[in-house]
Specification:
Layout (H helix, E strand, L loop, with lengths): L2 H10 L9 H18 L4 H12 L3 H15 L2 H26 L3 H15 L65
Helix pairs in contact: 1-2, 2-3, 2-4, 3-4, 5-6
C-alpha cells in the first residue's frame, strides 16, 4: 500500500495511526504539518523550507510532499476561492430576500446580478454542442473496377515497393482564352 493511500484510509477512519509502519507514520506527520502550514496561508516555498529543516528532507522530497498533500486534501487555493464564492452567493441571496420583503425591484435586480457574478455565470460559456447531431466524417472511396488488388494486410507492415504503379486517367481538355472573357 502506498503511503498516500494509507493516509487516506487513516483520514477516512478505515485505519488507525497505530496500524501504520514507521515510514508511513513519518509520512503521516509530514503530511499533517504540510497541511497545517498550507491552511495557515503560508506559501509553498516557506512550507518546503520548514519540511527541509524539520524532517531533514531534500528540496525534491519536500516539494513532493507538498504536491502529495494537495492530492490528498485538494489545493487550498482552489478551496479558498470556492469558499469566497459561496460566501458571496449567500450574501447575494440574503440581499435578494431582503429586497423581496421590502418590495424593491431595483435591489432585487442588483442582488440577482451579484448572485450571477458570484457563481461566475456572467462569463462567456458557450453551450455544449448537440453530440447526437455530430457524426464522424464518412468518405466512400470506390476504386475503379479494373484496378489491381494490392493484397490483404497480414501484419503490421506493408511493403510499398511491391505495390503496382498507380493507374492514371488522361482526360480530354481544351485551353480557354482568358482574354476573350475579360470584356464581358
Amino acid at each position: 500500500m502506498k503511503n498516500s493511500e494509507a493516509i487516506i484510509e487513516v483520514l477516512n477512519g478505515d485505519l488507525r495511526v497505530d496500524d501504520l509502519n514507521p515510514s508511513q507514520v513519518d509520512y503521516y506527520k509530514r503530511v499533517r504539518v504540510t497541511f497545517d502550514l498550507i491552511c495557515e496561508g503560508n506559501p509553498s516555498k516557506y512550507v518546503s523550507g520548514v519540511l527541509e529543516k524539520e524532517f531533514g528532507l531534500s528540496r525534491t522530497q519536500a516539494w513532493r510532499t507538498i504536491r502529495e498533500t494537495e492530492l490528498i486534501f485538494s489545493k487550498m487555493q482552489q478551496v479558498d476561492k470556492m469558499v469566497h464564492r459561496n460566501i458571496a452567493a449567500e450574501m447575494a441571496k440574503k440581499a435578494y430576500r431582503k429586497a423581496d420583503i421590502q418590495n424593491d425591484p431595483k435591489a432585487m435586480v442588483a442582488a440577482t446580478h451579484a448572485l450571477v457574478k458570484a457563481y461566475g455565470l456572467d462569463q462567456h460559456d458557450p453551450d455544449t454542442p448537440d453530440f447526437e447531431k455530430l457524426t464522424a466524417h464518412t468518405y466512400i472511396i470506390l476504386p475503379p473496377a479494373n484496378a489491381p488488388k494490392l493484397g490483404e494486410v497480414n501484419g503490421g507492415l506493408i511493403d510499398l515497393n511491391q505495390a503496382p504503379k498507380p493507374v492514371t486517367i488522361d482526360a480530354q481538355y481544351e485551353e480557354l482564352d482568358t482574354d476573350a472573357g475579360a470584356g464581358s
